[in-house]
TrEMBL record:
InterPro entries: CBS_dom (IPR000644), CBS_dom_sf (IPR046342), Diverse_CBS-Domain (IPR051257), DRTGG (IPR010766), HotDog_dom_sf (IPR029069), Ser_kin/Pase_Hpr-like_N_sf (IPR028979), Thioestr_dom (IPR006683), WH-like_DNA-bd_sf (IPR036388). This is CBS domain-containing protein. Residues 195-254, 256-314 form the CBS domain. Keywords: CBS domain. Gene3D superfamilies: CBS-domain, Hotdog Thioesterase, HprK N-terminal domain-like, Winged helix-like DNA-binding domain superfamily/Winged helix DNA-binding domain. It comes from Planococcus rifietoensis. It holds the Pfam family DRTGG.
Length: 435
């Protein structure tokens, strides 16, 4: 039987997109405490079922597919520009496909404004009305209001009219930044992207005999399996090491590892991979907030996903991507890399920032390891020495040297030179990923 928490989530999913909900309403209609209702609504927000907007409240939204994440909803625009909704609240869940800046004659402006657009304009009241009639929402800049007629029309057409105190140029920049950030988020692999779903996952029950483990092991050649109770909740994990020397008739709960490490669907693949390396585990169960088993991933799944992602074209460059693109190999016999400091990598004083400097050192050391043994690596520890500041536009030479390497780990010394003088050094320790 579903818990009260699960019943609330199921109820929220049945609500119409755009419908407003509240803790008090949920508590009253489902006869639960306000605390239970509050926690369920927060989880619904994490699952992207609802969105909470300042001065508007919490509304049911359409769950966006990952491939469309760069398309912002009007509700998200309200948050981005710290706006106030003047009318058309029922349409906040809708997505915009383009924004138009109203800095031209009215007739020309309307030629570019279509359904699904967002017109960014100041106190040009006719433009507000015409945009709504064309099926576009309106963002009023400069803190101006809209006419009562426009507010009424916005409510009728369910197209938001939003007011913000920022000017038009600033608003356009903020929205561009938000879309760009969404593009970067889109590229970050999450567990939900690579998860083997529960229906395709082999698992054991606590009272299964070890004989059942052996059968699954022969059938799938997998070395480990999650263990669930009668309610489908994860209670342990069992591997080949656990069953050595045990009788075939002994039950799984006697030999399994209890309370195993788990992650959620929203955990990044990279974070899950790091966790598996640090803890020395090959299997990682995926659970929901109630500890129900949702699937499982292996170290091989994580490594394959990371390698595949590295071959994909970039759409939204992060600072890390920019730094990697600046590293160019200039000497092969003794590995040397050239690097030029660009404005994005500097601090307020025009020197290379600590974060960018650390990334340069890490990437150079990882390149040396990949050249040596073709393995992927994960940074475990770094000690950095700044000997002299690195200025904007400086062309650096990075020389990584592998001091020690084994099957599981490696130590790398990195030297940074500018105009043939050593200006920085670092010692890095890496964990190596087995394929």
């Amino acid at each position: 039987m579903a818990t009260k928490h699960e019943q609330i989530l199921d109820y929220i999913e049945t609500l119409a997109v755009g419908e407003k909900i509240s803790v008090r309403r949920i508590a009253k209609e489902l006869q639960v405490s306000e605390g239970t209702a509050y926690r369920a609504i927060k989880e619904a927000e994490n699952k992207r079922l609802v969105s909470t907007i300042e001065r508007v409240g919490t509304i049911r939204i359409e769950r966006k597919k990952k491939e469309n994440i760069e398309r912002l909803t009007y509700a998200e625009i309200v948050k981005v520009v710290d706006g106030q909704v003047l009318g058309g609240r029922a349409g906040l869940h809708k997505s915009l496909n383009k924004f138009v800046i109203g800095a031209m004659q009215l007739e020309d402006m309307m030629r570019y404004t279509e359904a699904g657009n967002l017109l960014i304009v100041g106190n040009r009241y006719k433009a507000h009305e015409y945009a709504l009639q064309a099926g576009a929402a309106v963002l009023v800049t400069g803190g101006f209001d809209a006419s009562e007629q426009v507010k009424k029309l916005a409510d009728e057409l369910e197209l938001p009219v939003i007011s913000t105190s920022y000017d038009t140029f600033t608003v356009a920049t903020m929205i561009n930044r938000a879309i760009y950030d969404q593009l970067i988020k889109k590229e970050i692999l999450l567990i939900e992207d690579i998860l083997i779903p529960l229906e395709n996952t082999h698992f054991l029950h606590v009272k299964d005999p070890i004989r059942r483990y052996n059968e699954l092991n022969n059938e799938t050649t997998h070395g480990g399996f999650p263990v669930v109770d009668s309610n489908g909740r994860l209670v342990g994990i069992v591997t080949s090491r656990d069953v050595i020397g045990a009788s075939d008739t002994e039950t799984i709960d006697k030999v399994m590892t209890k309370d195993p490490i788990t992650v959620s669907l929203q955990t990044s693949v990279a974070a899950a991979g790091h966790r598996m390396i640090w803890e020395g585990i090959d299997l990682l169960p995926i659970t929901d907030d109630h500890h129900n088993l949702m699937g499982i991933i292996s170290r091989q799944d994580v490594l394959k996903a990371i390698q595949t992602a590295q071959r994909q074209p970039q759409q939204g460059e992060t600072i890390d991507d920019i730094i990697k693109s600046q590293l160019n190999q200039v000497q092969e016999d003794k590995l040397s890399l050239e690097f030029r400091v660009t404005p994005q990598m500097t601090n307020a004083y025009g020197s290379l920032s600590y974060g960018a400097y650390t990334m340069v050192l890490t990437e150079a050391a990882a390149t040396a390891l990949k050249t040596k043994n073709r393995k992927d690596s994960v940074l475990e520890n770094i000690t950095v020495y700044f000997l002299k500041p690195v200025q904007l536009d400086a062309a650096l030479i990075i020389r990584p040297t592998i001091l020690d390497i084994s099957r599981k780990s490696a130590k790398v010394d990195v030297e940074v030179l500018y105009e043939q003088q050593v200006i920085g050094k670092a010692m890095l320790t890496f964990q190596l990923l087995d394929r």
